[in-house]
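dumping the sequnces here before i forget
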Amino acid sequence: MKEPVILNHPLIKHKISILRSKKTGTKEFRELISEISTFLCYEATKDAKLEDVEIETPIQKTVGKKLNEDNYAFIPILRAGTGMLDGLIKAIPNAKIGHIGLYRNEETLKPVKYYYKVPKNLAEREVIVLDPMLATGGSGSDAIKMLKEDGAKNIKFLCIIAAPEGIKRIQTEHPDVQIYCATLDEKLNENGYIMPGLGDAGDRIFGTK
Ligand code: PRP
Ligand code: URA
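..and the predicted 3d for all of it:
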């Protein structure tokens, strides 16, 4: 079981406060989700393997390091996970992208699958699942299960806000998966919303409420 990596940095704390505020509008909300996601990507690629590459500067030949960008697969969970995507693509522009469509049934809180399309050869890739909210953990856990059934072996889960309940569920059902979150909140309310949270991430990213 892996302990979650939590971005304990003043810049992140500052951005999360603006993100949480109900006064923050759609444009700024989207921008903040994207910016925080870039920082999550930075953290999640700290262990990335690099290859040597020969380069020639204007002064001399030297050996630099190169990331095999094609090796990465970013998998946003629809809808809200797509809000994180451009923040990651800024860091690794050549990553492959898959989509998993899930929504939470509002009464049972259980995830319902409606779409699944992912890159080939997942077994050889670094698979990074994106969803801003890890609440009960049902959506994240189901998405990871689907990816494992397709061969994925190296999976990381990136979220902006996690609840302890969601972290525990992923740790129990997928002890091999490393979670990265920008902040860890207190708990869930009776409707399965994260407290204090930021409300419904999908609605705030897409302006649907
Ligand atoms: C939200 C969120 C996660 C899920 C988290 O999606 O983006 O996917 O809920 O909850 P869980 O950890 O309890 O499963 P939602 O179902 O609202 O769909 P949306 O992204 O289309 O708005
Ligand atoms: N999904 C959200 O968008 N927000 C929550 O607080 C919980 C699940």
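Helices lie at 10-20, 26-44, 82-91, 138-149, 164-173, 201-206.
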